[in-house]
């Protein structure tokens, strides 16, 4: 598809301009008219402009996808044809979602299925999302699947919001402490150093350490910045290697409190996703295959790969999960066994997901409550260190005058 820039007038005769994507100029003009505009001129957009706009517009958030899914489900459930529902959503969408919905609509109008059209936008629609939409199309229950998807995405966003909210306070405090320390080292300490040298003051060891650190920062700050950037870049490269991801993810799981919390968060999302896929008609093997591709932790992903192979060989799902205690708690394999016995795997996994979510929420609150006194202690120690290192030498100088 090509990109076209246009100039047009709206219903109030105001000039507007923009860009649309279509296979040819006639279809591009049609898309502009569908926006309720009167076309004045339309011409191909330059590749540079297209790539720049594409890179900007391809950025979407989980909230964008959740809202889109909820609205699409509501309209299809109300009896609107898919193309008409997408057309309405395109006129309402802005930025990244307008770009994506326009492309999906164009592909659907040309005869592609919704899952196939969405599959061209993997940055917006996950493999789980696409598999569920496809199963809904095959089973003729697309509206029901979209409703479940919307609910799942909304729960994910709510859960992520809780984690972010819990981390805001410590991040702000730590960031503020680092900023104050840098201001002191770069601007305040050098002036005090000059004062101390003028009076040949006898300084405590803590003050000498701070002065030495300040001089080092002033003299070698380019080296400090370059070194920090190089270390971050090297770590990022290592983190993206197979061995690096394995090592880092394993270490993260072994961290006290944080490691267990991370595992709980991942398992909450995993069990919820498996429940949704299995309940929507996706086979267990396909659900496991998709899950091991989208899960963020390598330890969990490798365990899921092995579980998938075992299930393909005929082993019970509960037995396969029980073989990986390093990744999954025993309670999960027990509950899966219950699901296999009752034939209600999706319902059981949904309940397990809720349990993991509640436990994660409690641990996040506990971690936040534990971090606050630790931060206060660190602040107290920092203030005491500053008093001894900076204020006391100044006080001694004033008493000597």
From TrEMBL:
Spans through the membrane: 166-189, 220-238, 374-395
Predominant cellular place of this UniProt entry's protein: membrane
Pfam families per UniProt: T2SSF (PF00482)
UniProt KW S-adenosyl-L-methionine keyword: no
Cellular component GO terms held in the UniProt record: plasma membrane
Keywords for this protein: Cell inner membrane, Cell membrane, Membrane, Transmembrane, Transmembrane helix
GO BP annotation list: protein secretion by the type II secretion system
Stated name of the protein: Type II secretion system protein GspF domain-containing protein
Organism for this UniProt entry: Candidatus Woesebacteria bacterium RIFCSPHIGHO2_01_FULL_38_26b
């Amino acid at each position: 598809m090509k990109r076209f820039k246009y100039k047009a007038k709206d219903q109030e005769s105001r000039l507007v301009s923009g860009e649309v994507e279509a296979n040819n100029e006639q279809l591009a003009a049609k898309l502009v008219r569908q926006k309720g505009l009167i076309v004045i001129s339309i011409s191909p957009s330059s590749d540079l402009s297209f790539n720049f706009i594409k890179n900007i517009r391809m950025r979407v958030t989980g909230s964008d996808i959740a809202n889109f899914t909820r609205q699409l489900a509501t309209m299809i459930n109300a009896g609107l044809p898919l193309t008409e529902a997408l057309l309405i959503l395109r006129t309402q969408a802005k930025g990244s979602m307008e770009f994506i919905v326009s492309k999906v609509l164009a592909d659907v109008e040309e005869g592609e299925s919704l899952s196939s059209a969405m599959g061209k936008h993997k940055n917006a629609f996950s493999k789980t999302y696409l598999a569920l939409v496809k199963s809904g199309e095959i089973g003729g229950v697309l509206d029901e699947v979209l409703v479940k998807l919307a609910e799942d995405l909304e729960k994910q966003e709510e859960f992520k919001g809780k984690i972010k909210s819990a981390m805001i306070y410590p991040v702000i405090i730590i960031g503020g402490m680092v900023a104050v320390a840098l201001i002191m080292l770069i601007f305040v300490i050098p002036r005090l150093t000059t004062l101390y040298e003028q009076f040949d003051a006898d300084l405590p060891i803590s003050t000498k350490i701070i002065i030495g650190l300040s001089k080092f920062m002033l003299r070698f700050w380019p080296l400090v910045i370059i070194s920090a950037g190089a270390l971050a870049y090297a770590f990022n490269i290592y983190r993206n290697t197979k061995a690096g991801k394995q090592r880092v993810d394993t270490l993260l799981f072994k961290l006290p409190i944080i490691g267990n919390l991370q595992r709980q968060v991942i398992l909450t999302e995993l069990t919820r996703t498996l429940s949704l896929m299995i309940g929507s008609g996706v086979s267990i093997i396909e659900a496991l295959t998709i899950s091991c591709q989208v899960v963020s932790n390598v330890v969990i992903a490798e365990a899921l790969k092995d579980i998938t192979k075992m299930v393909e060989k005929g082993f019970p799902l509960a037995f396969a999960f029980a073989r990986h205690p390093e990744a999954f708690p025993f309670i999960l394999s027990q509950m899966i066994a219950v699901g296999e016995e009752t034939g209600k795997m999706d319902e059981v996994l949904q309940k397990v997901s809720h349990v993991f979510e509640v436990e994660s929420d409690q641990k996040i609150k506990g971690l936040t409550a534990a971090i606050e006194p630790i931060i206060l202690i660190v602040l107290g120690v920092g203030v005491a260190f500053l008093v001894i290192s900076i204020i006391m030498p100044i006080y001694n100088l004033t008493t000597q005058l």
